[in-house]
Write a structure and sequence with these properties.
Number of helices: 28
Distance between the termini: 63 Å
Structural class: alpha/beta
Low-confidence stretches: 166-175, 239-243
CATH topology of the largest domain: Glucose Oxidase, domain 1
Strand content: 15-25%
CATH architecture of the largest domain: 3-Layer(bba) Sandwich
CATH superfamily of the largest domain: Phosphohistidine domain
Number of domains: 3
Shape: elongated
Strand order of the largest sheet: 7-14-13-9-10-11-12-8
Bound molecules: phosphoenolpyruvate, magnesium ion
């Protein structure tokens, strides 16, 4: 793309051509000539959506007889792929792409390189703009961005000229009115009922080419000022029960809002001839391309923050009405959105917000963490959500069952209400068990601890009356921060955790970052790993970057001043790793003592057994341990070679498989013989049947998700362990026994509660 002046000139000329009184075809022809000239490309072609097909409507460089002859369906060829995915393609050698479809009538065989972008109007792809070159070459980011800007302007001009019928586009399926069940991923557990409220009526930018850049700059300036003011207010208004992780999240969000680099890029767009709205959108589009394909959840979350801010800014600058939050919820509502920014969620009236359904969303997303802190059920990854639901539809959100029921039939509604009532009744029942011990009918006391990682998890300690925190995932604080959390912030969090626990034990796990829990400020190599779960993570990374471990150790030691600190290391594969990590902590402890700084009175050290190989040398490690904690989430995936996150392997990833249980029994027996307490801290222990199996192989300590404490306690209190242990020993000794079936049958016979 030419420099700002040239860009402005191009946009102005595009505008003039489209506004002139002449035939449609001649307008489009002139547009391709202008684009080819400005981008110095040998071919520039415009494909437009006609009767559901992408039709070559004008070209400069391809054979003219192909115009209105070459037609491609969505998903067909490179052009169809761009339209289907609504993302650009940039290829040095077009024919190497698996979707390449050769069209002889175009004469395109001479051209090797290809770049194309979708022409999008009202969130629908209405065409494709493509350029081609004879020489194989990759187009750089600036060129692709320029193409996108032109496509955005074209979208408006084409629609204004009536060249595509965006409303009646055959790509859009007719709106449903019948009941539907949309599956999704449970991100925050719970159930909610209300009417569907769209978070954001999408704003259509109708004016992309500016008349006066100074006017646009002034509009942008005042919009920025207003947006920043609004965000400042929101941050100061955020009302939560106590301090929390949302502090870190909102700080990060604020940092983006005040980012001068972002503002400068929007100004560049205005310099290039765009209106303020179009310039904001152009920067957002460029960002989407850069980050859109990133698999790193942290980067994707950053993108959502930016999208959130871009939308907010466009709404302000265009004076169009705000989000549903601005209009105010007036009845019980379930919020519908592609994604939500953390600050946007905070704007809603919690009294009426009964649930949230998102097309995107992930477990570690900021909005998820906030929704959890607010106690609002959240269902994510709901495919085609905004197509299947209409504003005002009655909906039932059942995050527990992983589904959103839209326009539910009466029978579904009745069953939903029944399950909601049951859920409340069960909660009340578990609540009654709160002060009773987790003791089996034959007198075995099971220690039930809970897992935590966020400040917002802490109230659950008193609510469940758990015996302590058996796993505190310290990396969560690192994951929600934009920068490495400073010592002060770490100490403050650990202190809050210890204070909430009172006399109860808290076992802190040193950071398990790296691999799929990547944090950008630590990513020194920037390499993508083939197998992140088995990659550069946890203790491996901590030992290589020992400064990080030492700093964390210091924060933990200081936070535990005057009391016993329980500390464990994740992913220990060999005894020397444990020894080295422990030495780093001991060194910090000695330095604090020498400097007279108050610190932990005593330290108890543990290792997590997650790597199967460690079991083979456990005899060497046990004498050095104060406790052992088995991370069955990772251990199981490594034992069975079945990725814990892959839904296709859900059947293979079986905690009650004989191999897993036999393996665990070996470990438990060995630890018992060495008199080292052993606990299970993976999700396995939070499921009543699996927890029963663990008790049957001798486990007496579990650390589980807070919501499971009630159900597991109810199970323990209805079980007779002695006969179960004998039966389990038999099952494991008899080839081919289906442990799940046998155990379920025995539990039913004994009347053990498993719900
Ligand atoms: C585990 O792997 O079982 C575990 C508790 O650690 P995480 O789930 O955090 O990997
Ligand atoms: Mg693990």
């Amino acid at each position: 793309m030419p420099a700002a002046g040239g860009a402005r000139e191009l946009l102005r000329r595009l505008h003039d051509v489209m506004a002139a009184r002449q035939s449609t075809q001649s307008k489009l022809d002139q547009v391709t000539v202008l684009i080819a000239g400005a981008l110095e490309s040998e071919v520039a072609s415009i494909y437009l959506l006609r009767d559901g097909m992408l039709e070559l409507s004008a070209t400069r460089g391809l054979k003219q007889q192909a115009v209105h002859v070459t037609r491609l369906a969505f998903g067909q060829g490179l052009v169809g792929t761009i339209a289907e995915t609504r993302s650009p393609l940039n290829l040095a050698e077009a024919s190497t792409h698996p979707r390449f479809a050769y069209r002889p009538e175009t004469g395109e065989e001479r051209f090797h390189s290809f770049a194309g972008v979708p022409i999008i109007r009202r969130e629908q792809c209405v065409g494709v703009l493509a350029v081609q070159h004879v020489q194989p070459r990759d187009y750089d980011d600036v060129e692709i961005e320029a193409l996108q800007t032109v496509a955005m302007v074209l979208a408006e001009l084409i629609a204004a000229a009536g060249l595509v019928d965006t409303e009646a586009s055959s790509a859009r399926p007719p709106r449903e009115t019948s009941p539907a069940r949309l599956p999704g991923l449970k991100l925050v557990d719970g159930m909610g009922r209300g009417v569907a409220v769209f978070h954001e009526p999408r704003i259509v930018i109708t004016n992309t080419v500016a008349d006066d850049a100074d006017v646009e700059r002034a509009r942008l300036k005042s919009a920025f000022a207003r947006m920043r003011e609004e965000i400042d207010q929101m941050v100061s208004r955020a009302d939560f029960a106590g301090p929390g992780d949302h502090d870190d999240i909102l700080e990060t969000y604020k940092m983006f809002a005040f980012d001068e680099g972002w503002a400068r890029r929007i100004h560049d767009g205005i310099d290039g001839g765009l209106t303020a709205e179009a310039a904001i959108e152009a920067v957002a589009q460029a960002q989407r391309i850069k980050l859109g394909s990133a698999s790193d959840p942290y980067l994707r979350e950053r993108m959502h923050d930016l999208e959130d801010l871009s939308n907010r800014l466009i709404r302000i600058v265009s004076g169009q009405s705000g989000t549903a939050a601005k209009l105010g919820l007036t009845q019980d509502s379930v919020l519908i959105a592609r994604n939500l920014g953390p600050a946007e969620l905070l704007e809603y009236d919690r009294r009426y917000l009964k649930g949230i359904a998102l097309e995107d969303g992930s477990l570690t997303a900021h909005v998820t963490i906030l929704a959890r802190a607010m106690g609002v059920p959240l269902l994510g990854r709901v495919k085609d959500l905004r197509m299947a639901v209409a504003e005002g539809d009655p909906v039932l959100l059942d995050a527990t069952a992983g589904a959103l029921f839209v326009r539910p039939a009466q029978a579904v509604l009745v069953s939903f209400e029944e399950r909601t009532a049951l859920r409340l009744a069960k909660q009340a029942e578990f609540e009654k068990l709160k002060d009773l011990p987790a003791e089996s009918l034959d007198g075995v006391r099971i220690k039930l601890m809970m897992n935590a990682g966020l400040r917002s998890d802490l109230p659950a300690l008193d609510m469940t009356n758990a015996d302590g925190i058996g796993l505190f995932r310290t990396e969560f604080q690192f994951l929600v921060s934009a920068t490495l959390p400073r010592k002060g912030r770490q100490v403050a969090l650990y202190r809050d955790v210890l204070q909430a626990a009172g006399d109860r034990t808290v076992i802190f796990r040193t950071v398990d970052i790296g691999g799929d829990k990547a944090v950008p400020y630590m990513d020194e190599r920037g390499e993508r790993e083939e197998n992140p779960a088995m990659g550069w993570r946890a203790l491996r990374l901590a030992l290589a970057r020992s400064g990080l471990l030492a700093a964390q150790a210091r924060a933990l030691l200081e936070a535990a001043a005057g009391r016993t600190l329980h500390l464990m290391f994740p992913m220990v594969a060999e005894p020397w790793e444990y020894a080295e990590a422990r030495a780093i902590v001991e060194d910090r402890r000695a330095r604090l003592a020498a400097a007279g700084i108050p610190h932990a009175a005593d330290v108890r050290y543990g290792a997590m057994l997650e790597v199967p190989a460690l079991a083979m040398v456990l005899d060497e490690l046990l004498p050095k341990l104060d406790f052992l904690s088995v991370g069955t989430n990772d251990l199981t995936q490594f034992l069975l070679a079945a990725d814990r996150g892959n839904p296709r392997l859900a059947d293979r990833y079986d905690w009650l498989s004989r191999s897993v249980l036999k393996f665990l029994k070996l470990v438990v027996d060995q630890a018992a013989a060495a008199d080292v307490p052993v606990s299970i801290c993976g999700e396995m222990g939070g499921r009543p049947l699996e927890a029963l199996a663990l008790m049957a192989i001798g486990v007496e300590r579990l650390s589980i998700t807070p919501a499971a404490v009630g159900p597991v306690k109810a199970m323990v209190r209805t079980a007779q362990l002695k006969p179960l242990r004998a039966a389990m020993a038999d099952w494991l000794a008899t080839p081919g026994v289906d442990v799940r079936r046998e155990l379920s049958a025995m539990a039913a016979a004994q009347g053990i509660r498993l719900d």
